[in-house]
Amino acid sequence: MKYGHFDDTNREYVITNPKTPYPWINYLGNEDFFSLTSNTGGGYTFYKDAKFRRLTRYRYNNVPVDNGGKYFYIKDGDTTWSPGWKPVKTELDSYECRHGMSYTKFKSSKNGIEAQILQFIPLGFWGEIQKVSLKNTSSETKKLKLFSFIEWCLWNAEDDMINFQRNFSTGEVEIEDSTIYHKTEFKERRNHYAFYSVNTPIDGYDTDRESFLGLYNDFDSPEVVDEGAPKNTIAHGWSPIASHYVEIELKPGEQRDLIFMLGYVEVEKDDKWESKAVINKKPAKAMLAKFDTVDKIDAAYNDLRAYWDRLLGKINIDSGDDRLDRMVNIWNQYQCMVTFNMSRSASFFESGIGRGMGFRDSNQDLIGFVHQIPERARERIFDIASTQFEDGSCYHQYQPLTKKGNSAVGGDFNDDPLWLILSTTEYIKETGDFSLLDEMVPFDNDASRAKPHFEHLKASFYHVVNNLGPHKLPLIGRADWNDCLNLNCFSDDPNESFQTTGNKKGNTAESLMIAGLFVVYGKEYVKLCKRIDKDKEAVEAQKHVENMIKAVKAHGWDGDWYLRAYDFFGNKIGSNENEEGKIFIESQGWCTMAEIGKEEGMVEKSLNAVKKHLDCDYGIVLNSPAFTKYHIEYGEISTYPAGYKENGGIFCHNNPWIMIGETVLGRGDQAYEYYTKIAPSFLEDISELHKVEPYVYCQMIAGKEAFKPGEAKNSWLSGTASWNFFAIFRR
Ligand code: BGC
Ligand code: NOJ
User: Fold this and answer.
1) Ligand 2 within 6 A of 102 CB?
2) Which of 246, 454, 522, 659 has CA atoms 20 to 30 A from the CA of 94?
3) Residue 297 vs residues 55, 62, 258, 260, 301: alpha-carbon distances, Å
4) Which of 406, 418, 481, 651 to mutate to test ligand 2, by most ligand atoms within 8 A of the CB atom?
5) Is the pTM higher than 0.85?
6) Cα 418 to the chain's mean position, in Å?
7) Is 694 exposed, middle or buried, given 0-12, 13-18 or 19+ CB atoms closer than 10 A?
8) How high is the pLDDT of residue 401?
9) Mean pLDDT calculated for residue range 541-551
10) How many angstroms separate the CA atoms of 321 and 317, rounded?
11) Three-state SS for 621?
12) What distances in angstroms separate CA 415 from CA 203, 465, 561, one per listed residue?
């Protein structure tokens, strides 16, 4: 069953049934200021960092799902309705939500009133626009009452959800003309505030949530809306909101456009106040003046469209299959930009409070994006490399606001450093710009420890060489790309994190995935050294690559496929000898891409084994058979029920590795068949089962051993986007 359709000409997905099987969302914003918007008006907004600068509140995993957002209530006589269907959920005469490139549009109607909302963030702007157009299509004059609604977050999204003993007393607002200012904590250490405004005189407002909603009401029937009159409340603590009230009279055929703006302002420390306790509103007013007419809004919207025309104009295919073309030409590239901006931080599955930018994630995201904005990719490479140490190891994550390594998570994921060679060499291939190799880049964010960027690549390469195990294969550390293969963790305490706990000393467990990865990017490193006349280094590095190939052939081959790892005790993982987890996808992907043992037939056997043991109707599962009991020596991977996530789920990120592996053998048709199983546009007709958006890849589809094979989760923020794009273009 479908819930809408693609409009390729406009580069939009058009949702025509608001009751999608899961909220189908879009991302607004391209640089510093971002919003997430669902097809029913749910979502949230932040500046740069979803944890530290959250403007509006969102309750994840809510009941019902996706409750809270940027809402409008239209009261027309006895009928109240919302253009996005939610929160009121009055049955609409028509409903349409168009998710486009960094904008979302709603168009719906009820009882002779047509409402349109255009929602977007102008380029380079720290504010979001909602252009609300109301038209009377009936033959009678209509008197409408319009209420807007957003709920402020008290900036730190994590603290906002837990520290109620403080937070219920800190909230502060100011109101001037049609603008509601949110200034919680401004009087102390913050140099920023937010505002929500409309470009017309208002007939009232509310800023106290409880007064607006009523303590026992839900978002669908706020007391103020039910009663048809605002209370003009000023929030003191509790939960500050911003709601405007506007009375609108429309003659038959008449249309009225209102411009709402949600903005963020930073001021200098000594320029915070207009007068005692009154915040400096000058910058906010300047922002409002910039976009106070429909013409200005339309021009900014056209600029945004032109910007995406330029970005998407760089690569285009015409394959004869619309489903492929629209992925490659539109949605895949769009998703790559979103993953580049967000890493894994903010979605409806990622709460934006846990994870910053991932070292490996961001390097991989970059390969799907570098052709669009190479300058930003260059800067990103340096940001990532700055969180590395001299021995090549690195922080696993960093916070986008501070660009500093996250010490709570730490490091020791031994695949991490290698991905820097991937991003850097892809950047050079795309741009021909070798100069970044000479740029001075700090270690551990310490400028006094800066070295040319090339030294970071060298450190990455030798981090593997210097950390080999008993079979001369790479030690795994806490885990490799598969965060859940925790071979040194040995946790029997449910309060321990699999990601950060290492109960055993990790100098025996080895990874065949890192071995393959090392051969692929080791070869790239050697090529690079040759190109920049570092011949001695090239010869030296080549030896290490060859040694690794030998080690894989001698200790990493199981007869029909590549092993996955050796555990802490030196036992094989991913071998026919194992009862569960006999074969894994990651080492098949990387060792075939590395062409290890191609002449001896290993690549072909490995890929045939993938087809036989891992392929299913919905994609290629991660391992088979899935684990059915907890193996303390394997860690988190064996905690998931069979068929889900890293335990036998279709972890879409790694499927393109097999596709690329297939191309090593020239088996393009097989590669394409795999692609069509996980590409969302090919799954549109089974949206009811698939659940998540048919326009973006997801992280995981339940595998063949799951309770409900084919059901997907974790859409949007996944390395799947960049790797599929790469699989289609680079090989
Ligand atoms: C998930 C992984 C994720 C990791 C780090 C694990 O629980 O299964 O997919 O990368 O946590 O957040
Ligand atoms: C999601 C993480 O973001 C990524 O870094 C990791 O490689 C995969 N999970 C696999 O575990």
Assistant:
1) no
2) 246
3) 22, 33, 11, 11, 6
4) 481
5) yes
6) 22
7) buried
8) 82
9) 98
10) 10
11) coil
12) 59, 12, 21
